[in-house]
Amino acid sequence: MARRTVRTAADHVPDSTDVAELRAAAKTCQGCDLYRDATQTVFGAGDPHARVMLVGEQPGDVEDRRGEPFVGPAGGVLERALADADIDRRHTYVTNAVKHFKFTPAERGKRRLHKTPGQTEIVACRPWLVAELAAVRPLVLVCLGATAAKAVLGPEFRVSRQRGQVLPAPGALAEAEDRERSAAGSSAGAGPAVVATIHPSAVLRARDRDDMYAGLVDDLRVVARELA
């Protein structure tokens, strides 16, 4: 029986460590079927040489329309939490594990409803995440929510069990960053440290918003200590 070929974005990713070149190439990515319904690709944004890179799940309704990550309600929560954790957002790079908005169509005039990306879509989009990591070369990689954590740390990872812990970057992600550090004349280490926490949108959905928000800030303070 012939083995099924897994479709990914790999053929669309240029051999480049320039974030602007990667962003331009991602505009025409058809590595999975999400591009068919999304308004546009929403690539990462921020400091291309940031010491901390934050990875969310996917763009939301506002991000899909504007073409920028974390500019909707969840982005407002993230910006406030970063400030409370003494991390300057201007010196961060923010992106998503999946670059197209997956949604359930809404009634006329209403906001489209977010739909969680499947493992096939996470795997398909992972080459972009690997390329971004190799380009930015952060010291710390922050996974915001379960989808981002599974994209980086594997499908068995559970944020509820290991949130706020400093973990080593796995396999391909560590190797990608180390190759670029060596090419740039920097000493290779073991890739970035990885810290997983909740997605800022979880704060907006929670009944106990204050407690959820405080937990997010506490996890980001772990990141701040790694950057010190």
TrEMBL record:
Where does the Uracil-DNA glycosylase-like domain lie? Answer: 43-221
What Gene3D superfamilies does UniProt report for this protein, alphabetically?
Uracil-DNA glycosylase-like domain (3.40.470.10)
Instruction: Give the span(s) annotated as Disordered.
Output: 170-189
The alphabetized UniProt keywords are: 4Fe-4S, DNA damage, DNA repair, Hydrolase, Iron, Iron-sulfur, Metal-binding
User: Could you provide one GO biological process annotation from this protein's UniProt record?
Assistant: DNA repair
Q: Which domain of life is it from?
A: Bacteria
Q: Name one GO molecular function term.
A: metal ion binding
Keyword Metal-binding included in the entry's annotation: yes
Alphabetized CDD domains for the sequence: UDG-F4_TTUDGA_SPO1dp_like (cd10030)
Q: Which family does it belong to?
A: Belongs to the uracil-DNA glycosylase (UDG) superfamily. Type 4 (UDGa) family.
What NCBIfam families does UniProt report for this protein, alphabetically? UDG_fam_dom (TIGR03914)
Name this protein carries in UniProt: Type-4 uracil-DNA glycosylase
Which organism is this entry from? Actinopolymorpha singaporensis
